[in-house]
Amino acid sequence: MESDSYRELSPFMSNMLSIGMITSWLPGGRTGIFGTLTIFLMGWLLEMGRSAYTWFSERWRFQYSLTAEFTEGDPAYDWVLAFLSKQQVWRRSWNFKISAKTLQRKNGVESTEISKGHNSENAEYVPTYQKPQLFRWNGYWVEVSKSTSMPSYDYQAERTVCTSTIYLTVYTRDVSAISALVEHARTEYMEVSHPHVIIHTSNRSYAPFYWNECKRKPRRSLESVILEAGVLDSLVSDVQEFLDMEDWYQTAGIPYRRGYLLHGPPGAGKTSTIYALAGELGLEIYSLSLASSSIDDSILAAAIACIPKRSIFLLEDIDCAFSRAEDLNSNTNNVPFGMYGSPTKCNVTLSGLLNILDGVASQEGVLFFATTNHIEDLDNALIRPGRIDKKIQYYHSARPQATALFKRFFPISHCAPESAKEGASDEEKASLVSSLAEDFADQIPEKIFTTAELQGFLLTCKFKPEKAVREAKEWAENTLKEKSELEEKKKAKKEKIQERRDKEEVEKLQSTLMKMNGLNSKPQRSDSVATKQPNGEETKTTEDSSKPIAEPSIARSRSRSPSSTQGSDNDSWTITESNIEQDPDRR
Ligand SMILES: Nc1ncnc2c1ncn2[C@@H]1O[C@H](COP(=O)(O)OP(=O)(O)OP(=O)(O)O)[C@@H](O)[C@H]1O
Fold it and tell me: DSSP secondary-structure letter at 535?
């Protein structure tokens, strides 16, 4: 800074000199070298004063202030944004970034405050803090400023990205002021976030990794997730116990983390459970999909390294990563992308994931949640205790779930059954809804439909419980029919694919054997002996030229893979070279 002032001095001096020269020759100006020198001296004194002020103020600032830096992507960045919004620093802001309100978290200021009664619910006002602003907090002067990195193009996300950094300068020598401010910011952030569940995701596929997407969803109550009795309570108390027992884990020398696997049919409520749990316990979710080809072991390790303590790390549909390889290999040529057997490729290796779960790359104090529709496809090593500590199975909807869902859809506060008598009390209406719920459950075959399917049907009968009961049977029959037709189609398609695979495999093996035969017959030709005929002509004879080339037999065998704990059978093709073996010359 000091040297900068001196560097600035020489152009300043030459400017003063030229101004002095010009003014001295203007009409009425003081002529001569004396006038020029006076102006030059005055300018020089002013500049020296300015430099001295800068020098002293910078030294003072350096010694009596502390600056904290918060970079976008780090959770503390969000805390500080929420804190600044609460401090109303934006009231002195010159710049706002305005965008349509979406689920995306942007830490905008309260729209009602900024718009003073105008309807601005649809827009989000985010102060940019591009110019430094000073405010008082807890008896300290604090200055906020922000810088944004040069834009770079993210090829994966196909858009230009910039990273912002917020600087908070607290004018004090007390370091604890900064930590108090950060803690205060975090508490306020939790308060602001309370009505929502915050879900962080990322589409960055290169270093430095950070969770660059943040969404908020309205909190979902635990009661709204309908599961078998006791399942949710036991999960919530398990998670709560884990969060309360950090000391015990440390004393016992056990890694402080816990893994949960939620498995069962799609639409049974696995994701809903995790969101409701996060809302109940005030935890943030960091979610990744291993189905994305941009994620590899190093990205996964970096991702988990940036997750703060007491958060949920969610890997959805974990089976997509390591299983179904057979399916994927089989038919990538002819099936459109996104359909059965689509060529999605996961770059995360099983050992990479195991390392993360084992703690080599994992973060202490993080709750790991994985969901899958196919637990049978998962490697046993992945789900052994220590990596997955609690497994929860989800089922198709049973009768109690169907009735509970019906009651949740038709609360008497929102709809009165048509069949209720005029002037019926709330109790009477409630008991009527309960009996309608039983009638509804009578129409629905047990453990066939998922809760999501039942929810889809009930949505077509909003505010009309009687209609739902009337139409349930027909809906169930039609849906079952559709399902079985779909299953048939899928089966036929699978068989076709399998047939084609078999054919290709046979052709491949046959051509390999033909080649082997060709190789085997070559040395025999070289064994051919040249014999001289009495007439002097040389003739070549091959030892077994008369023997027919044996056709290999190809048979399909089923072998049980020792690594497969689920006992899945592997189809494999073997070549039975019985006829080759019988013929020692062919070896
Ligand atoms: N047990 C349940 N209780 C309440 N709602 C449910 C339940 N199961 C499913 N739903 C509803 O069905 C929809 C899908 O549920 P959700 O995403 O939780 O299922 P999932 O098991 O995670 O499915 P997938 O395996 O496909 O991810 C949500 O709208 C949710 O409200």
Answer: T
Evaluate: CB of 299 within 6 angstroms of ligand 1. Answer: no
Please tell me the distance from the alpha carbon of residue 372 to that of residue 566, in angstroms, as a whole number: 15
Burial class (CB in 10 A: 0-12, 13-18, 19+), 163: middle
Unique residue bearing structure tokens 């005029």? 422
pLDDT tens digits, one per residue of 217-227: 888 889 899 99
Rounded to the nearest integer, the mean pLDDT of the chain is 76
Nearest CA to ligand 1 atom 17: 271
Which is nearest to 190 in space by CA: 332, 32, 76, 324? 76
Q: How many angstroms is it from 271 CA to the middle of ligand 1?
A: 6
What's the CA gap between 255 and 237, in Å, rounded? 19
Task: State which of 221, 271, 449, 454 you would mutate to test the pocket of ligand 1, scoring each by most atoms of that ligand within 8 A of its C-beta.
Answer: 271
* Cβ–ligand 1 contact at 268 (below 6 Å): yes
Ligand 1 pocket: which of 373, 455, 459 to mutate (most atoms within 8 A of CB):
455
Pairing verdict, β 311-316 and 366-372 = parallel
Residue 47 has pLDDT above 60, yes or no: yes
* DSSP structure string for 460-525: GGTT-HHHHHHHHHHHHHHHHHHHHHHHHHHHHHHHHHHHHHHHHHHHHHHHHHHHHHHHHHHHHH
Dihedral pair phi/psi, residue 286, rounded to 5°: -115, 110
* 453 CA to centre of ligand 1 in angstroms: 9
CB atoms within 10 A of CB 131: 12
Q: Does residue 373 have its Cβ closer than 6 Å to ligand 1?
A: yes
Q: What is the pLDDT of residue 486?
A: 93
**pLDDT over 70 percentage in the chain:** 68
Q: Kindly state the helix (H) or strand (E) to which residue 315 belongs, with its residue range.
A: strand 311-316
Interface predicted TM-score (ipTM): 0.98
The sign of the torsion formed by the CA atoms of 75, 76, 80, 82 equals positive
CA distance 172 to 174: 5
Contact between 172 and 124 (Cβ < 8 Å): no
CA-CA-CA-CA torsion sign (151, 157, 159, 163): negative
Calpha distance 52→65 (Å, rounded): 19
Quick check: 205 and 288 in contact, CB under 8 A?
no
